[in-house]
Design a protein that fits this description.
The complex is a heterodimer.
Chain A (H helix, E strand, L loop, with lengths): L2 H10 L8 H12 L2 H13 L1 H35 L1 H9 L3 E8 L2 E7 L12 E5 L2 H4 L4 E7 L4 E8 L1 H4 L4 H12 L13 E7 L5 E6 L2 E6 L6 E8 L2 E8 L4 E8 L5 H11 L3
Parallel strand pairs in A: 3-11
Antiparallel strand pairs in A: 1-2, 2-4, 4-5, 6-9, 7-8, 9-10, 10-11
Chain B lengths: L4 H6 L3 H11 L3 H23 L2 H18 L10 H19 L22 H12 L1 H10 L4 H12 L4 H8 L3 H19 L1
Classes of the chains: A alpha+beta, B mainly alpha.
């Protein structure tokens, strides 16, 4: 059989043309009476836009007023603070962070936090070389007042560890002892060096609160207490940061003007304590 | 939207059909219009695929219930609504045959003579008689039913339903070239069965 013959056969075969009207009727009744259209009418009502427009709009406005608007103001305050040249320098050079904003009486108070906590393990500690001696006494943290109306930083209020965590005499003694018994510091601090002062280091985890009509800083719960022991010798300065909770030295700071041969020569071995 | 029966039923062009379909998603009257138009072509197609009246009724019912259920998700793609219905019908028929591989195709001798006193449904009696009278169709159908399902589909649509290649392509969602190849291979296989 050729293809054409088969095609001809298929095209010419008498096809059954059958109708079953009763089935057509029954099926139509079943379809139009089905759940589909009952559910649709209900859903049509609840889909009507006007039914939802007013409460939705009210909800959006409420969310806007309660949630979004304050967030926008906070973001604005952060931006103003970040763009201030002095603060920009602190953020970039000292790894400080702007962490929290409080709005009060048309002003924004932005918390400038110290850099991230040192997380030493084992015998590690950091050696930090500052550019100048002034920088060793530099700002640790601050509350930045931002004028939202003027769109500028109105005031920078430095905060010190002593303001948050004043050290008791016992704690100062403890800090001194830790430094003096730290073997690695032998030769780093000259023998004749004297302790200029011992004060508390500003904790990294801080938060803002409103107190007596002012905005103040308090530590978050469970911060490790740290002390800074300032040594001075022949006009040169060293700052040793001590973790009073773990009873260990965490950081040595000294000025680059301080050509400390012992530190320079032993920097690697000191670092190799890691 | 006002549904005007007569005009839409017989002179439904694609743009009008689109309106009716959108209306049918929520308006049973609009769905009824579509049903009235397409019931017979779909039933007829399913009967040509199955050569069994009872099965054709069942599968036609399933087709329209599936269509109703899926109507909400139907997205107009500038092809006739009928192509979508044919596709559902094809799937229902093929699905049945996959599940019932041992389904015995009815031969001429097996189509019952329905005595009128046992079956008050005169329509069904007449229908069975009509089917039985198409001997050549029944014989061809027996051979066609031994082909792969895709070949059965394209042969039925092309030669029994007289669909154009482009229409078959729309129904099966395949390019025209593919349809032509499938028809060609189907004929080749059918020839072997017939000879």
């Amino acid at each position: 059989m050729e293809d054409e013959d088969l095609i001809r056969k298929l095209e010419s075969v008498e096809i059954p043309e059958i109708e079953i009207p009763s089935h057509k009727r029954r099926l139509k009744m079943a379809l139009l009476g089905s759940d589909y259209f009952q559910k649709s009418s209900f859903f049509e009502i609840i889909k009507k836009p006007l039914v939802w427009a007013v409460p939705t709009l009210a909800l959006l406005i409420t969310i806007g007023v309660i949630v979004i608007q304050p967030r926008l103001i906070e973001a604005k305050a952060l931006t103003i603070a970040k763009n201030n040249p002095e603060i920009k320098k602190l953020l970039e050079e000292k790894d400080m962070v702007l962490s929290e904003v409080k709005i009060k009486d048309g002003r924004a108070y932005v918390l400038l936090n110290p850099p991230e906590e040192i997380k030493p393990t084992g015998e590690t500690f950091a050696i930090k070389i500052q550019k100048t001696e002034e920088e060793m006494e530099d700002i640790e943290g601050a509350i930045i007042e931002v004028s939202l109306e003027q769109k500028e930083v109105a005031k920078i209020n430095p905060i010190k560890g002593e303001d948050i965590f004043p050290l008791a005499d016992k704690e100062k003694e403890s800090a001194k002892e830790i430094v003096e018994t730290e073997e690695i510091l032998e030769g780093v601090i000259p023998k004749g060096a004297k302790i200029e002062k011992i004060n508390s280091s500003l904790p990294q985890k801080l938060r803002l609160i409103e107190k007596d009509d002012k905005v103040e800083v308090i530590p978050q719960s469970e911060v490790k207490k740290r002390a800074q022991v300032y040594y001075i010798f022949d006009g040169k300065k060293w700052v040793i940061k001590v973790n009073l909770t773990e009873k260990r030295v965490e950081e040595i700071q000294y000025s680059s003007e301080n050509q400390n041969p012992k530190v320079e020569n032993n920097k690697e071995s000191i670092k190799n304590q890691f | 939207m006002v549904i005007r029966r007569g005009y839409f039923l017989f002179y439904m062009d694609l743009s009008k059909e689109k309106e009716i379909i959108n209306e049918a998603k929520k308006n049973p009257e609009a769905f009824g219009l579509l049903y009235d138009k397409y019931y017979q072509p779909i039933f007829s197609y399913v009967l040509k695929r199955t050569a069994n009246l009872e099965l054709a009724q069942d599968l036609t019912s399933q087709t329209f219930f599936k269509a109703l259920k899926g109507l909400g998700n139907f997205r107009w793609q500038n092809i006739p609504f009928s192509s979508w219905l044919y596709r559902i019908a094809t799937n229902e028929v093929n699905s049945f045959y996959r599940k019932h591989k041992k389904f015995i195709q009815i031969s001429l001798e097996e189509i019952p003579e329905i005595p009128s006193k046992d079956n008050p449904d005169e329509e069904l009696k007449m229908a069975e008689k009509e089917l039985k009278s198409k001997e050549e169709f029944i014989k061809l159908h027996q051979s066609i039913s031994k082909l792969d399902l895709i070949y059965q589909t394209v042969i039925t649509l092309r030669f029994f339903d007289k669909k154009k290649i482009s229409e078959i392509g729309q129904i099966l969602g395949k390019p025209e070239g593919t349809i032509k190849s499938q028809i060609h291979r189907a004929l080749k296989e059918l020839k072997k069965l017939i000879q």
